[in-house]
Specification:
It is a single chain. It contains 16 helices and 12 strands. The protein has helices at residues 57-62, 73-78, 147-163, 201-209, 213-227, 237-259, 309-324, 331-341, 344-360, 370-384, 388-395, 407-410, 416-431, 437-447, 455-466, 471-480, and strands at 39-41, 51-55, 91-93, 96-99, 102-106, 112-120, 123-130, 145-146, 169-181, 185-195, 261-262, 284-285. The strands form 4 sheets. Strands 2, 6, 7, 8, 9 and 10 form a 6-stranded antiparallel beta sheet that branches. Keywords: ATP-binding, Magnesium, Manganese, Metal-binding, Nucleotide-binding, Nucleotidyltransferase, Transferase. It is an enzyme of class 2 (transferase).
Length: 510
């Protein structure tokens, strides 16, 4: 990109001529080599007078940008889509998908553009703008994203990474005063997302539905070569790819369940082929535990409720498997081959959820009866709507041999005798394996976060941002970078949601 040295900055003074902070960023675009069937080339639509709302220095590092890059006015212009990046090959990709269980036909990047790919010591990172204007796949949409949802996506992408959950990343969010119509008039924003790949299950479904089997195979080869090279040597690399995606998806969903994350719109077009959490929209973290919690106000049937997520992921993998069928062989043999592979998901998920849930309780060994013990705890939590995050954090303080310190945990439950009975069994179980209270406490605090992006925390940051005060976005980002550490100065970010949080509604409208 052109050097920005000597350009006036926002306050009208000349910037120093020293190395422009983001000159090192130059891009290639391997996805573009797939061919015209996969995308449409087009530039972003500029937004006037953009401003920086949030920036992640850790994400910047992935694409080789120094933290100072965000101070360069050209940074904001570039990541709002107002000026091109050198070597970029900007395009919107086409995909299809199942939405809420129904085949939706062609979708595609209706408001996102792939700028290209940065190759750094941290790997290959595709850079995508979301909210950058109309594309041929916008259908009835306006190609834009609003500030509210863009802040949520920015913060949650980075928070999930720091929780250890597989996810796309977010470099920054920029805003502009341009009006965007949703239920009310809001303002426009652009999130810059980073991912090794933005390919979704829906990309495969698209070419299968169009009966373009050559393109389907080219896409599968592209994903294998770039992201699952171990599949290449298998007897059928495409079956091996399906198995790998089953495993990656199982790992991701087990992580979600363990941190109380609800995605909200697990349509097949929102499922990453790499098993990364993608497309943060009406997501939510559990506050008071309700196994049937529905975070998306538009999900009237509860298809994507917390408890449903593991099975929905499996359903989505069936859609992927169907799309890959032509690559598995002929007729019934292909179907049978797919049916043999798919249960890989169930096995992997069962193992991963067992591992993660036991870790949440500080159980190092696997004993008969552990699952029942864990399920009993969840039932008590469900009945008493016990706060998911605070409960597990507090449970780490329980003493193995001494119930006299139970009050802070016990008082979270409505059914106190029920808790006492459970706690007695939990203690007995803890005593059945080696380890001290102190060791267990340390281990539990490593897997049970203190800080998650609860809706009300995001909402407070959004309200400030609507008044052009972006400091709360930054504070929240920083707190959520260390979700497992006590941060005494930020204790209030671990509080129960205030009463007004119950009225917050998040929907597909973003
Ligand atoms: P989502 O529910 O956000 O995953 O979006 C589903 C489909 O609708 C995708 O193809 C999106 O690109 C598209 N879409 C969502 N919002 C908009 C919008 N405001 N303008 C254009 N396309 C959109
Ligand atoms: Mg989507």
């Amino acid at each position: 990109m052109p050097s920005t040295a000597g350009a006036p900055n926002a306050s009208g003074t000349q910037l120093p001529r020293a190395a422009p902070p983001f000159a090192p960023l130059s891009l290639s675009n391997r996805f573009a080599q797939l061919g015209e069937a996969f995308f449409t080339r087009l530039p972003p639509q500029p937004l006037p007078d953009p401003y920086l709302v949030g920036f992640s220095p850790e994400a910047a590092q992935l694409v080789g940008l120094p933290p100072e890059a965000a101070h360069d006015p050209a940074f904001v212009e570039t990541f709002t889509g107002n000026r091109p990046l050198e070597g970029g090959d900007t395009l919107a990709s086409v995909y299809s998908g199942h939405q809420f269980g129904v085949w939706a036909g062609q979708l595609g990047d209706g408001r996102a553009l792939l700028l290209g790919e940065a190759d750094t010591a941290a790997g290959h990172w595709e850079i995508q703008l979301k909210g950058s204007g109309l594309t041929p796949y916008s259908r009835m949409g306006d190609g834009r994203a609003v500030l509210r949802s863009s802040i949520r996506e920015f913060l949650c992408s980075e928070a999930m990474f720091h929780l250890g959950v597989p996810t796309t990343r977010a470099l920054c969010v920029t805003g502009a005063d341009a009006p965007v119509r949703r239920e009310t008039i809001e303002t426009a924003a652009v999130v810059t997302r980073l991912s090794p790949s933005f390919i979704r299950f829906g990309h495969f479904e698209h070419f299968y539905a169009a009966e373009r089997i050559d393109d389907l195979q080219r896409l599968a080869d592209f994903v294998i070569d770039g992201h699952y090279p171990q599949c290449r040597d298998a007897a059928n690399p495409y079956l091996s790819l399906l198995a790998a995606v089953c495993n990656a998806t199982a790992d991701m969903v087990a992580h979600w369940q363990a941190v109380g994350f609800c995605h909200g719109v697990m349509n097949t077009d929102n499922m990453s082929i790499l098993g990364l959490t993608i497309d943060y929209g009406p997501f939510g973290f559990l506050d008071g535990f309700n196994a049937n919690h529905i975070c998306n106000h538009s999900d009237t049937q509860g298809r994507y409720a917390y408890q449903a997520q593991p099975n929905v992921a499996y359903w989505n993998l069936f859609c992927l498997a169907q799309a890959l069928l032509p690559l598995f062989g002929e007729g019934q043999a292909a179907v049978e081959a797919a049916q043999e592979v798919l249960p890989v998901y169930k096995t992997r998920f069962a193992g991963q959820i067992d591992l993660r849930m036991r870790a949440k309780l500080g159980l190092r060994e696997s004993h008969a009866g552990d699952e029942a013990l864990i399920n009993r705890l969840f039932r008590l939590m469900h009945e008493g709507r016990v706060d998911f995050t605070r409960l597990f954090r507090q449970l780490a303080e329980l003493r193995m041999a001494d119930p006299s310190h139970d009050a802070p945990v016990r008082d979270m439950f409505i059914d106190r005798p029920g808790f006492d009975a459970w706690a007695a069994d939990y203690r007995a179980r803890l005593q059945a394996e080696a380890g001290s209270d102190a060791e267990r406490r340390t281990a539990m605090r490593r897997v049970n976060p203190k800080y998650v992006l609860r809706n009300h925390l995001a909402e407070i940051a959004i309200r400030h941002a609507n008044e052009k005060d972006f400091s709360e976005v930054e504070t929240l980002r920083r707190v959520l970078m260390r979700p497992y550490d006590d941060q005494p100065e930020f204790e209030r970010y671990a509080d129960l949601p205030p009463d007004w949080a119950g009225q917050l509604e998040v929907s597909c409208s973003s």
